[in-house]
Amino acid sequence: MKLSFIGTGYVGLVSATAFAEMGNDVICVDVDENKVQKLKNGSITIYEPGLETLFERNVREQRLQFTTSLEDAANNSDIIFLTLPTPPREDGSADLSYVMNVAFKLSSIITSYKVIVTKSTVPVGTADRIRRAMESQGLKSGIDFDVVSNPEFLREGAAVNDFMKPERVVIGTSSPRAAEMMKTLYEPFVRNGNPILIMDERSAELVKYASNGFLAVKISFINEIANLCSLVGADVDKVRTGMGKDSRIGSQFLYAGVGYGGSCFPKDVKALYSTSTEHGYDFSILEAVMNVNENQKVTMLNRILQHFDDNVEGVKLAAWGLAFKANTDDVREAPALWVIKELTQRGAIVSAFDPEAIGTTKAVLGDSITYGKNQYEILNGAEALLVFTEWNEFRNPDFAEMKNKLNEQTIFDGRNLYDPKKMSELGFDYFSIGRPHYAPEAVFQNNVHAIKKVA
Ligand SMILES: NC(=O)c1ccc[n+]([C@@H]2O[C@H](COP(=O)([O-])OP(=O)(O)OC[C@H]3O[C@@H](n4cnc5c(N)ncnc54)[C@H](O)[C@@H]3O)[C@@H](O)[C@H]2O)c1
User: Fold this and answer.
1) 20 to 30 A from 109, CA-CA: which of 98, 175, 229, 398?
2) What parts of the chain have a pLDDT lower than 50?
3) Mutation test of ligand 1: which of 27, 36, 264 has the most ligand atoms closer than 8 Å to its C-beta?
4) Same-domain pairing of 248 and 120
């Protein structure tokens, strides 16, 4: 089939590449000329495990092409996917201007029947809005089209695998013709028997928000349990293991930490809350979820500040991880960037390392911090290490080297990567989320400073 993707970011590039891999002819459109030029030259623009090999093969075999011309792409495709940004507006609602502007343009561009698919995460009623907008704009007479909602559930960091083997494909349309085309397109991805669920547009639009909203509830719930654990002397890791073994609950998304971030959860929870409010419904769980999530990063910041008697002026700190989660270079709404910014504004000197997200962080934090070439280099002379992202290389590090390099063996771990008891035996003053804190047991030869006692 001939496909086009309007918007060549994380979702656009991954899905376009995956469809090309299945033998479709795919054209990607973007307004960012530099991005299009880079992609045309065969250079990939995002980091996503496994994507580069597929991308290179499909570019080489000319099934994956790039352009800045919406007109060329649209009229050379049967199905037009909108993979455009839907960022939050000030009031939390989804900004649909990118999607609607392209829909308006398409109405005067298309010269034959097209299926227009919203793969962007869009509020309930958007398919209807697009349909009405296109009909009221300069649509040439006799030109037919259908609008389909096809929400995307891929996770950054595992996007290729998620797209290639979806647990479910959701297709929202009232058009049998469009439904058939979409089913044909997706069948190669669900040969394992996973379902293609055809439903009305509004339900499909809501599935995406309901799913992300529910996962955010799980994260905020376990973070609240972690906060309670700190007060009552329990260990959130043990509590979550005990809970997760109940198949009605499940163990995923039950990891306490510094809070969720990224380009989806924060904005989707806000947008779902905003949709509910617009319809006069007080979705109170979501309000609590958002507050808990904001508080998690504030709690980590306060714990660090408290340790330094509320004065981090001139204090050298090292940060492991900048991306909002492992296996991505995405730093949108990353808790790391928020905490680091708060610390540097108070005069801390921060040096950070992330395996993939240094470039994307530089675009936000610039030279307000320094960036290391590896995870150990930045520890030199630091008064504490802050852990923000659960990259594999941080899970089992060389603790001896860490001890040698750090000025103070203090670690604030926002991802609960290490065993608190073992850390204390190794002599670290180790703070994690919702787990016991043990005073460090050993003082190292190289440690010329007294190890701080815990309050
Ligand atoms: N990132 C994810 O993990 C994820 C997962 C599921 C769904 N989504 C949803 O998918 C949508 C896209 O997200 P993303 O992360 O890929 O965004 P992104 O910011 O990475 O990419 C969007 C792209 O659209 C381009 N663009 C903007 N205006 C354009 C226009 N008029 N014409 C052509 N291109 C244009 C931008 O230059 C950018 O390259 C959002 O609605 C998001 O909520 C994202």
Assistant:
1) 175
2) 444-455
3) 264
4) no
Side-chain half-sphere exposure of 246, counting CA atoms within 13 A: 7
Q: Which CATH number belongs to the domain containing residue 406 in this structure?
A: 3.40.50.720
15 lines ligand 1 (CB under 6 A): no
**Ligand 1 pocket residue status of 104, Cβ below 6 Å:** no
Q: What tens digit of pLDDT does each residue of 107-163 get?
A: 999 999 999 999 999 999 999 999 999 998 777 778 999 999 999 999 999 999 999
Given a contact cutoff of 8 angstroms between Cβ atoms, the answer to whether 236 and 222 are in contact is yes
Pair (243, 350) in one structural domain: yes
| Domain end point (choices 164, 198, 232) | 198
Q: Are residues 157 and 289 in the same domain?
A: no
Per-residue pLDDT, 314: 98
**266 close to ligand 1 (CB < 6 Angstrom):** no
Predicted local confidence at residue 343, as pLDDT: 98
85 Cβ closer than 6 Å to some ligand 1 atom? yes
pLDDT value at position 451?
A: 40
212 lines ligand 1 (CB under 6 A): no
**Ligand 1: which of 4, 6, 11 to mutate, most ligand atoms within 8 Å of CB?**
11
**Alpha-carbon gap, residue 347 to 344, rounded angstroms:** 5
Residues recognised as catalytic: 264
Q: What is the pLDDT of residue 443?
A: 54
* Residue 156 alpha carbon, nearest atom of ligand 1: 3
Q: What is the pLDDT of residue 141?
A: 78
> Residue 242: enclosing H or E segment and its boundaries?
helix 236-244
Task: Please give the residue range of the domain that contains residue 188.
Answer: 2-198
Same domain, 190 and 264: no
Same domain, residue pair 315 and 415: yes
264 plus 166 within the same structural domain: no
Q: Please identify, among 198, 216, 232, the residue that sits at the C-terminal boundary of a domain.
A: 198
Give the H/E segment covering residue 101: helix 97-109
How far away, in angstroms, is 85 Cα from ligand 1 center? 4
User: For residues 420 and 288, what is the distance between their CA atoms, to the nearest angstrom?
Assistant: 29
- 219's CB contacts (< 8 A; 6+ apart) are 253, 255, 257, 259, 260, 265, 293
- Tell me how far apart the alpha carbons of residues 383 and 381 are, in angstroms, rounded to a whole number: 7
User: Does residue 328's CB lie within 6 angstroms of at least one atom of ligand 1?
Assistant: no
Identify the pLDDT of residue 325: 95
Q: Which ligand 1 atom is at minimum distance from the Cα of 12?
A: 16
Tally of domains within the chain: 2
Q: Which residues contact 24 (CB under 8 A, 6 or more apart)?
A: 1, 2, 3, 63, 185
232 and 119, same domain (yes or no): no
191 & 204 share domain: no
